[in-house]
What we know:
Order of helices and strands of chain A: HHHHHHHHHH
Number of strands of chain A: 0
Strand content of chain B: under 5%
Oligomer: heterodimer
Number of helices of chain B: 8
Shape of chain A: elongated
Order of helices and strands of chain B: HHHHHHHH
Shape of chain B: globular
Amino acid sequence: MIRTLIRSQWLLLFTIGLYLYAFFVAPVRAANALNIGTSTFFSVTLLIISVFGLVGLLQIWISRELIVRLLGREGGIKGLLIAALCGTVLIGPAYIIFPLLMSIQKQGARWAVITIVLTSYAVKLQMIPVEVGFLGWPFSLARALITIALAIPTGLLVEALMDRRNL
Amino acid sequence: MTNVGFVYLILIGSAYLALLFIDRQKTGQSLKIAGQSLLKLLPLLVAIFGLVGLFQEFLPAELVTQWLGESSGVIGLLIGASAGAVAIGPPLAAYPLAGSLLDAGAWPPAIAAFILSWISVGIITLPFEAQTFGSRFALLRNGISFLAAMVSGLLLGVLL
């Protein structure tokens, strides 16, 4: 039980350890750090709660089956654009996303589509308010646009390399 | 930021209310999933904000500028992208860390590369990706995404 706790919550335990050490060596500065951390946390609590509300909505109303259907059916540039769009709203850990994408691939989707979904996955529409809160509008907007713009060339490149047998 | 959160909460809250009329059961399910994913992530969030506090108090700004500052150039980009590739966790955790590094004087392109490779490159999930798609695809995709993260970072520097 302790081992699973360590494996799943190692970062939290590590942080607690750092704090204990900090309180031991420099109590005033450690208290200061704790203050900064807590007030940052509380400044985004409402935002985080709302973002998870949105996560729940997307998960249920935009089902994974719908995404599979869209990606499997559409070809050409339209398919690639749909892939980029799907990637930005798709949520969930790797162990859900990978098998999902593999099933699309088996249904005949291109490698480019799989790569584009995984690349545009780096833009999380539902998380944008949090990103803006920490990094500001210009940074977040530029990052989202560039990611989506580069997702399609990246996908085509991976596909081209996948098709070349002896590399 | 609290005000933005309030507006957002009202928006999402009204979406829930409206959907409640369309399909009661599905809306309830959404709320359940929302609560469950938030609870599951809570320990990680606590850890991340704890780290943000430690960063801001103890991490010397000179160190950040030296390793990730504008003068570090390509090295800074590489450090950012590599740190992101090794890190694992939801994007939500990357933003506060990235924000405190920016405040400490890091170069925006290096930080953009950090966030991008945090999400789209996974050293830790690589074995799993290779098992699902084959190692050829996994290596190609992660390698190219790593490069793309740095290129995007540079483009962001041009745009800002």
